[in-house]
């Protein structure tokens, strides 16, 4: 973990403690990328059914990916103090993992802008997972969405950040 | 866990495997409620700073709660096959837990309608957690959103569902 | 003014003081209507130019009216604790008043639902006024939006409400 | 008031009088800021109750501020001919004024872009006021939103603008 | 064509010619369904590439279908005088037609409500077609979206409507 | 037709066939413009009634134009893999054509950005047409939206494109 702590306060609060959307108009436009990951854990039969159901038409995983991509574009409308950003790239990957059992989700978001896209990547992962839940909830309601975190963040003045890999 | 498996297929796919928003126009309008929970785990200093920073104005937790409530109303715009619903109640609670350390989040959503509000409750929890992440990410990027799941679902023909309590 | 004070607390806060979207699922579905009014004050030349510019194509007032109608449908996405509602009627009227000088705006919203549409009517008036401002701001930036208030509210258990007419 | 009248027509209408979103692609990207203000007038007991109710948790004013910030980001979706803009800063302040009695609202919006953010600041003030109305309307329906206007606008080719201070 | 002309005026205009969202609060809640169709015409090689590209993962047609379903839910936010409706069913079908060459699109929308869902079905078809255009436009920009029309409308007081089949 | 085929694959699919929003962060910011056209065909009496009804207030065509302009700004929220863009200009023209009979619609969209605005222009045309349909559907349900296509696209590395004029 190489994160430089560049602040010891909550940056969305001003000096009187009020929430605000902080000024980034003087920051440099640089290429910034963020990668977030997450998991959805389910029973083995649920995973098997999705994988089987997915085979002929691809609608389950395809729908979840599209939902994640579209949600990344809604981030600033969902997270109150996020800056609206003309995002330049969004990619969502969903990988079945029979050991969980469940799916591993990974979202990569990039932009050339004054501020980063961590929240966009994390939002894409979250909504992708929620969509998988929605599409399988008739089979199993006890699925769990878990380990949503930032894998890496590159570009920008505050330095690059790489999360510690966890042995799952 | 008292879930009645009322389907052995993925209900959002039609018989040819295509995604669709299923017809609920013949279902009964009954009062339905869903409760979802989740956690965000952070370092002890981050939790302490949020709690302290929160004291004078209440903006951190208040902002996260409002974000969760507003997101619940956006569920059908985020989850592709969810039905748009005139939701009747949304409540979000955030509780600090120094043992995690972090916050426990709980969302309760209710409606009198033809279909349930599980996805609305899960979405409220997810966006509340993401907003907490956003507001504290200058302090710590390694926070993790975890254990998002359905605690209970009542009302509706498919029967009530209660998730198993986990000893955290 | 016949308003029955049916509460002595802020209804959007629960007993611990937290914001919430209150439960209306047990309330009766009745026809409810709200009328809100407001004004935008400008210089006489600005009013004359809008009225003249409006003559051939009707785009200025027409655009402002459409903006107000569409905004009423966004109310629950703008006002955090408002219930999303399938609104049944929205009408916006804009009347030039050379004595102000400026425009008087009136919005009427109706629904058959568990809760009222005051906020929808007030939002329609506000966005109609803002759109008029936007369309005339190259002429005059000192326009003022003023006296936005609820004229009446009928239907629903808490009783009808009629605002006092002001001699403007 | 130092406004340079740089146009004698309604800029959102083309030469045939049709509404359009005017071309700003050739304009210079400069830092632009707009400040708007407004008021909500209520009875003294309503103000006292909000201030008291606000004390323990801060949810009333906090919620209204968040609503204003989020609404500023929706401006181009609400005002038909506004340009969508990746806003760089939004701040909303709410100050109780026992002489009104009521609240004074002030929104500051900034961006480095081809066009200004007056409408964003005015929209933030309007929705903040509407949210205050919504949260206190169980106490009093006769509150009035008033004096919404542009306090200043700086940056951009058309020159700076400062509204005349009114003695309230 | 069995359409009963139940009006000889433009129903979205009031008696003074102003646009409004008409009052439907007194209408009966009945089950209503609308089916709309449309086509996108392209060159044979483009069709072949999409069909081939679609084979392994299903993302092209799947993405277009999801876009159509989600757009149907946005209808009242896009068409100014449409009523917001809690839609009960949306299904989109896309069929390749080598004789066009291109795709035939069909959307079915149903609801139990006071007003119909023709615009929702037509919007679903339109956005599905636009998404197909978007996904293939690197191959061919001369694709054409055509013959978007209402195939049938059932339920509601104004009587059922069936469009005349065209021999294409 | 001067289109340079600069790709022989579906650019929204990655090498494994998954849908993605492609990276444009390295592309040059240049001024780009797209013009799209389309038609709505109706019976002669419907056209006559709209034109007559339109005379006093201009609300029918004005409303449809505003809908098209506002929809262009929603393009990235409707078309899943479109990049969100701070659009710089949108203009919609609607011309009655008694030979169709019906209306011809033309949308011009411009931006200085890393990617083009074809989808924005096509979306503006589509929603303008749908709004005309909505406003006249009480008169005639058999109207048809047709010949939506790209007339021209200029700016950007892939070269300019001009569609072939059709003799209608």
UniProtKB/TrEMBL annotation, chains A, B, C, D, E, F:
GO annotations under biological process?
A: Mo-molybdopterin cofactor biosynthetic process
Residues of the Molybdopterin cofactor biosynthesis C (MoaC) domain: 21-156
| Residue positions binding substrate | 81-83, 119-120
Q: Biased composition, Polar residues: where in the chain?
A: 1-14
The catalysed reaction is: (8S)-3',8-cyclo-7,8-dihydroguanosine 5'-triphosphate = cyclic pyranopterin phosphate + diphosphate
Return the annotated region ranges for Disordered.
1-28
Q: What are the recorded GO MF terms, alphabetically?
A: cyclic pyranopterin monophosphate synthase activity
Q: What class of enzyme is it?
A: lyase
What EC identifiers does the entry list? 4.6.1.17
Question: What residues sit in the active site?
Answer: 134
> What are the UniProt keywords, alphabetically?
Lyase, Molybdenum cofactor biosynthesis
- Pathway annotation: Cofactor biosynthesis; molybdopterin biosynthesis
Q: Show the InterPro entries listed in the entry.
A: MoaC, MoaC_bact/euk, MoaC_sf, MoCo_biosynth_MoaA/MoaC, Mopterin_CF_biosynth-C_dom
The record describes the protein's role as:
Catalyzes the conversion of (8S)-3',8-cyclo-7,8-dihydroguanosine 5'-triphosphate to cyclic pyranopterin monophosphate (cPMP).
Q: Say which family it is in.
A: Belongs to the MoaC family.
Q: Which NCBIfam families match?
A: moaC, PRK09364.1
Partners and quaternary state?
Homohexamer; trimer of dimers.
Protein name, UniProt field? Cyclic pyranopterin monophosphate synthase
Q: Which organism is it from?
A: Waterburya agarophytonicola KI4
């Amino acid at each position: 973990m190489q994160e430089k702590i560049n602040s010891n306060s909550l940056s969305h609060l001003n000096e009187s403690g009020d929430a605000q959307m902080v000024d980034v108009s003087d920051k440099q436009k640089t290429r910034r990328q963020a990668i977030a990951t997450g998991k959805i854990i389910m029973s083995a039969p649920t995973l098997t059914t999705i994988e089987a159901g997915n085979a002929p038409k691809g609608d389950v995983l395809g729908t979840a990916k599209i939902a994640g991509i579209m949600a990344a574009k809604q981030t600033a409308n969902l997270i109150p103090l996020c800056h609206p950003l003309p995002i330049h790239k969004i990619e969502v990957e969903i990988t079945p993992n029979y050991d969980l059992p469940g799916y591993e989700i990974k979202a990569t978001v990039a932009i050339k802008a004054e501020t980063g896209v961590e929240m966009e990547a994390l939002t894409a992962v979250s909504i992708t997972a929620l969509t998988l839940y929605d599409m399988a909830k008739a089979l199993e309601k006890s699925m769990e969405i878990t380990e949503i975190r930032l894998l890496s963040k590159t570009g920008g003045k505050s330095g690059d950040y790489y999360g510690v890999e966890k042995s799952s």
